[in-house]
Structure formats: C-alpha cells, structure tokens
Amino acid sequence: ECREMDSTSFRSFVDRTPSTTGELRIPTIFPDEHVSVRCDNCRCRLQMGKTFDATLVSTNFRLLVVRAVEQQSDVPRRMRLHDERVSFPLCDIFSLRYADAAHGGDGNGLGGALSPFRANLRRSKKGTEKSTEKELKQFKPLTTSLSSMEIISCLKVYLKDMRVLFIDLRNAASASNLANHLLHFSRPPRADRLPVGGGEERSRKVPFTDRLSWEEEMRRLIPKERQSMWRVVDLRAETIHADATSYPPTVVVCAGLSLPDVREGTHSWEGGRFPVWVYAWKGTVLMRSGLPISSSSAAVTQRKFEDRIAGTHDSQAVPHVIRLDGQEIALEKIGSAFEKLHKICAVDNSARAHRYGKVWPTRVAETGWLQAVTSVLQTAADTVSRLVDHEESVLLQEGEGRDVSAVVSSLAQVCLDKQARRMDGLKRLVEKEWISLGHPFSRRLLSVEGAPFCPVFLLFLDALYQLVEMYPTQFEYTSTALVALWDLVLTGTAGTVSCEDVTEQMQLGRTSSSFPLDAHFKEPVTLLFGSVPFAAASLVTRTGRSVPMMADIIRPPTSAANVKLWNECYLRWQPEAVIKGGGPLLSVWSLDRVMEEQQEEMGVRWKMTIGTIDHQMISSCFPYSSPHDDDPVVGHSERPSIGSITSLATLQINRETDYEDYGAPTPISSPSVSIQTPTVPVVRYHSGSITVSGDGAVAALPLSPNSMESRPTSIPVRQAPPVPPKTFSRSYV
After folding, report:
1. Reduced to 3 states, what is the DSSP secondary structure of residue 469?
2. Which residue in 68, 148, 334, 517 could disulfide with 53, CB within 3.0 to 4.6 Å?
3. Is the dihedral of CA 497, 498, 501, 504 positive or negative?
4. Given this model, what pLDDT does residue 240 score?
C-alpha cells in the first residue's frame, strides 16, 4: 500500500530488518529531505534486467528502490553521496509514461513477472511488429497530474542518463499519488528546491568571480608586453552588474574602453552580454558576446567596441565574427535531437531494441544529434584556424551568449591549450566558460521552472569525447571521467552546476564544486578517470628515444565520417550493445601490461598499474551494468544483421564473434590490443596479440604517420587469473 511516512524514520544507515511497527528505515543524505510517499508490494525492472519485488520510497529529492531480497551485484557503486543503483534523483527524470487499469490486464501482456517483455520478444520473432508497437502506445505520457480516483497499473520512469525504470503498481494502493509526486518534484520551481550535497561549502569562493582569478589567467595566456591592453572590470563596484546579471561580478574587457562605454555595452548586446575576453593565442584573442541589438545608438557603441578591440591587434584588424545562430546548433534543434536520441537509446523492451538495431545507423542519423556534434566541432576548427593560421582575433556571438558559444570556446581552448587537456585544466575551463560566464544549468539540464530539457553541456562533453577518442595520448582524462561528470551534473547536488548564474549561486550559497571528481565517486570507478595512453606517451617522450608525442595544437575533425556515437554514455545500459570480454578497461589494461613488460628495455620505470582483472566480469558496459544475460528476455537467438547495433558492437570487440558470418576469415583466437590511428596512438581490444605500430621499439608511437615508417611489433598478452573486478587497483612505485 501507499502511505505517508514520517521523516523521523530516517537513519544514518539502511536497516532492512522489519521493526515492531513494520517501518522501513532508510538513510537521509540531504538537508531538508523528507519522505512523501511509500509504496509497498511493487514489482520493478530496471531497463531489461530481472524483475524483483521492492518497496518504493519517494522523497522530495529522490526515488529509492528497496529490494525485498538483497542480491549481490556485479556492478560497483560509483557515487559517494548515494547509491545510484537504487537511488534515482528526481531532477534526473526525463519523462513519465503510465498505463491505466484498462490496459494493465493479463491479457495485454502485463501479467506474471512483467511479461510484456517476453510477449513482445515472441511476437518480434514472428515478424508481427505492429502488435508490439500497439502495446507500446498503451503507455500514455504523464504531463499533468492524475486524479486520485484514476487507477494506474504500470509506470515507466525514463531518466536523462538513458535508463528506464519499469514499475508494476497493480498491487499497490493509490499508485496515482506516486506518479503525481514524481511528476511534481521532477520539475522544481526554483533552484533552491534542488538537493544540497553533503559536501556543500557555503563559504567557498567560486573561481573567476573575483579580480585575482582573471588577472592570473591573463598572466598565464597573454604575452607580457600585451597584458596592458586588457583590464579587469568590477561590474558590481561600478554599478554595471544590474544590467548584466548573467555575467560574473568581474570580467576582462579591452583597456581602451571607459566605464561609460562598458555601461552602454550592456544595452547594445542581447542580455547585456557585451564582448568579453576569454582566451589569448599569442597576438590574437578569443571573445564571447550576445547578438548585437539593432538600433542606431547601439550601433555606435558596437563600432566603438570593435575599434578598441582592433587596437590590440598588430594589424589593427577588427575581430572575425562567428555567429552561432545556425539551424544545426539552435537550442530548439539540440533539444529535439536529444529527444530523438533518447527514444532509440532508452529502450525498455528487447523487441523494440531489436527493431531499432536492424537499421541502427539510419536511426542514429535521423536523430540529428551527430550532426549537431559535427557542427560544433567544425565551428571550433574554424575558430582554431582563424586564431592560429590567419592570426585573426575571433568574436563568438549567439543569442545571449550563454550556450553554444561556451561549447565552441571550450573546444577551441582544449585544442590550443595543453593545460585544458589535463584534469586540473578541465576543471579550470568548466569554471571559467560554463560556471562563471553564466550557463543556465538549472533551466537547461534540471528542468527548473518547467523549462524544456536542452543538454548543451552534454553536447560539449560529446564533442570533447570525439577529441579524446581521436587523440588519446593527448588527454590526461578519459571518456569515463566525462561520463562521470555528466552523471554528477544530472544529480543536481553539485552547487556550481545547478544554478542559473553566479549571482544565484552566491544568493543560495550553492558553491560546491563538481571537481575533483574523485571527491564524488568511489573506487574502482575513479581508477578509470586517468588515461593510460597519456601516461605512456608522456613517459616515452621523456626518455628522448622517440619523436615528441605531446602536441601543442590538436585539430578538431571537420568531417561527419570522423564523428561517432558516444556508446559509453548512451548505450551503457543496453544489453544488445554490450561487448563482453572487451571495452575500454581491457584495452588500457593490455597497454598497461605492455609498458610494464617493456620498461627495462626502454630504460624507464612504469608507475601506473591497473592490476589483475577478470575477463568474464569485464565488458564495455563496466562499471555501469552487468555483462551477464541471465534473464532469457535479453538477447535474440537469431544472427545479428549487417548494420545492426549488435553487429556493430560485436565486430569492434568480441572474442566469440563468428567472423565467417561477415565474410571475413576467423582471426587468431587469443585476445589482443591494436594501436592504430592516423595521428596518435589508440588502444583497441581486438583478438590475437598486442600490436604496436611505430619506429622499432616501444618508442614507436608516432604523433604523425608520415614522420616514420610503420613497422608493427607483436607481443603476446599475459592472461590474468580470474578475480572480481573490484580487486583491480592502481599502484604507484
């Protein structure tokens, strides 16, 4: 049954032993958290996993799923603050769908252990997919509160991280209360209704909101002889901040502009976002602003800004303006593309997954998400080219200058600044471009004020992932770290990435940082944040026995053919996309073994060691979901078709693939890792042996393929004894 639960039943531990009053004691982790609804006698299924009996407890911040019978999980707990395997932040809910009592009978496949999965699977094999689609439509979107008299039988909770929680409520009384509660609290009216993390530091100063932070950044990037051309302006002290509240209290502007000019600038660009300095490359600068307002008085101020900025360039040239209001990267387009991507990635039954999988490349292309990623990468490439090749200053303009300009500016700095490719540099970049300069995280990602979900920050992380994949030896952090950052933002607990702007952060005291990520995540997940290829390239370069492998500048891809779907982020919960016995962990483990075995020959001491891992426990979905298919619902007996999601996954990494089905000879049976890329070393798990392309010895990991002749060297893989994945660790000698 559903009933109100008093907040005094909270404890600092999970006590699943029934008390004399039959209460269930759960932990409280947020201030002002209280239980609103409790539902007993529920049956749940997360994605396409096993069905289990559970009690649902919903607070004003999260939904907890307490299993009736505890089960050992192969998946480690990732977050420190709460267990994301059983605790779901309400601000992470993307949409809700429900089936009423009329569509919840046994005759429609909802009887037994959530049998619509099995029923749909049988029908999909017979080819009658219309009946399957009809059943899917029986779940109606929940957009307004339900009547207390309405009886619902099932509820689907779609999360923004692509998970789906299926809840059978036929044996729970007043299930509509739970549905209404989830709907209401998943759309908080204000940012102060979001959870406050346990590590909140109300006295912490947000970087790049004071003069000292900006002056330090200017000294780091601007040549000494040019630093006098720019100055830090305190908008609050000069009573200008009231007209530009989305800016931090201090910004960097051209020294030739007077305070009255800056004050006029707040009325000459949309949102009061006049051009501000964000980065310098030798004699050129990168700036951001809103779109210029069309009026005669505003035009005078705009020309004055252009002339003063031109005076900072050797050729006295006005900055090259890049407008970011194109169709491919408009906010509406980004939101729509993600919604379509969510539909094909957050799949809740195997029949639908199989149907999408048959024509997977087409389905992905139709979403428009990869086109948006390609578009921002192309714009970043144009920005880099203007700054470096053409020696022009660049001004990025869009709307109020708070969204796509942050994406392009961040990507350009990652390409030009080696520091931004390190974890500390990524922290500084996010704090400057996203937090300080006012990206509206609360509205774009956390649905505050009922705003539509528009994951601009995810677009940046996806584009950054493309660079990490292309240049793995150039980045200290990995794709796993980017996924962790995305998941952390969706919890709403990191204060600086959960507000509208810096002004709101200071007013609410939400100043806790999302960095370092190690403070928010537990081992062994944190061991996957550091890049083994980066460490190996850095070590080999320091030996002096190789060409330098650490580049000053990297170039973003400009072709859509070089952009791929971020499987680790979008498909980590889908069984059909799982690569058993492979994935990033096994790849870096193999490279780690190579470096360990070759350190004496290279004359170096390898300090990074992952340790031993169990190949049967590890897959491409580690550490998010289990690779085991114990449930007969998951998977199909038929062969995957060419171009399907299953075939694309298994052809990448799978020792059990029957290669003859794809018209290729059967490869060597033993596992291997291939390092093959047109520009920098990449580690991929394939089958056979460890292949290192280069100039003879291990030092042969060239930055450019044209710099030397490629001569592969094969080294057999040393197999590790099976050990649970939790036991692997990184040691430092």
Report:
1. helix
2. 68
3. negative
4. 86
Q: Which amino acid type is present at position 695?
A: D
Q: Which amino acid is residue 399, in one-letter code?
A: G
Q: Which residues neighbour 115 within 8 Å (Cβ) at sequence distance 6 or greater?
A: 109
In the numeric block, the tokens 């912490």 are attached to 204
Of the candidates 529, 543, 680, 690, the one whose C-alpha atom is nearest the C-alpha of residue 605 is 543
The model's pLDDT over 61-85, given as tens digits with 9 standing for 90+, comes to 999 998 888 877 778 889 988 888 8
The number of helix segments (H) and strand segments (E) in the chain equals 20, 19
> Is the peptide bond preceding residue 223 cis, with omega within 30 degrees of 0?
no
Q: How far apart (Å, rounded) are the C-alpha atoms in residues 198 and 512?
A: 10
Neighbours of 455 (CB within 10 A): 22
Strands 52-59 and 690-692: unpaired
Q: What are phi and psi of 465, to 5 degrees?
A: -60, -40
Burial class for 558, CB neighbours closer than 10 Å (0-12, 13-18, 19+): middle
Q: What is the DSSP string of 283-321?
A: TEEEEEE-PBP-SHHHHHHHHHHHHHHHTTSTT-PPPEE
Q: DSSP for 662-674, please give it.
A: GT-----SS--EE
In the beta sheet, which residues pair with residue 619? 580
Distance CA 116, CA 114 (A): 6
Residue 62's beta-bridge partner residues?
Answer: 89
Per-residue 3-state assignment (H helix, E strand, C coil) for 333-398: HHHHHHHHHHHHHCCCCHHHHHHHHHCHHHHHHHHCHHHHHHHHHHHHHHHHHHHHCCCCCEEEEC
User: What torsion do the CA atoms of 79, 81, 84, 89 make, to the nearest 10 degrees?
Assistant: -130
Name the residue with tokens 């937090």: 435
3-state secondary structure of 436: helix
CA separation for the pair 302, 294 (Å, rounded): 10
- Arithmetic mean of pLDDT over the chain: 77
Helix/strand/coil for 243: helix
* Euclidean distance between CA atoms 496 and 445, whole angstroms: 13
pLDDT at 628: 60
For the cut 90, the answer to whether the pLDDT of residue 429 exceeds it is yes
Angle between helices 532-543 and 584-602 (to 10 degrees): 20
Do the strands 284-289 and 394-397 form a parallel or antiparallel pair, or are they unpaired? Answer: parallel
Residue with tokens 């900055």: 319
How far apart (Å, rounded) are the C-alpha atoms in residues 437 and 238? 18
Residues 6+ positions from 721 with CB-CB distance below 8 Å = 612
Contacts of 226 (CB under 8 A, 6+ apart): 280, 283, 312
Residue 159 near residue 94, CB atoms below 8 Å = yes
The 3-class secondary structure across 493-536, one letter per residue, is: CCHHHCCCCHHHHHHHCCCCCCCCHHHCECCCHHHHCECHHHHH
The mean pLDDT of 717-725, rounded to a whole number, is 34
Which structure tokens are listed for 227? 């630093």
pLDDT score, position 179? 93
For the segment 162-173, the average pLDDT, to the nearest whole number, is: 91
Residues whose CB is less than 8 angstroms from the CB of residue 678 and which lie 6 or more positions away in sequence, other chains included? 705
Residues 6+ apart with CB under 8 A from 70: 16
| Residue 44 to residue 166: CA distance in whole angstroms | 6
- Length of the chain equals 733
Sign of CA dihedral 469, 471, 473, 474: negative
Interval 186-190 mean pLDDT: 89
What are the structure tokens assigned to 278, written together? 């964000």
Residues 687, 689: Cα–Cα separation, whole Å: 6
User: How far, rounded to the nearest angstrom, does the alpha carbon of residue 248 sit from its chain's CA centroid?
Assistant: 25
Instruction: Check if the beta carbon of residue 588 is closer than 8 Å to that of residue 681.
Output: no
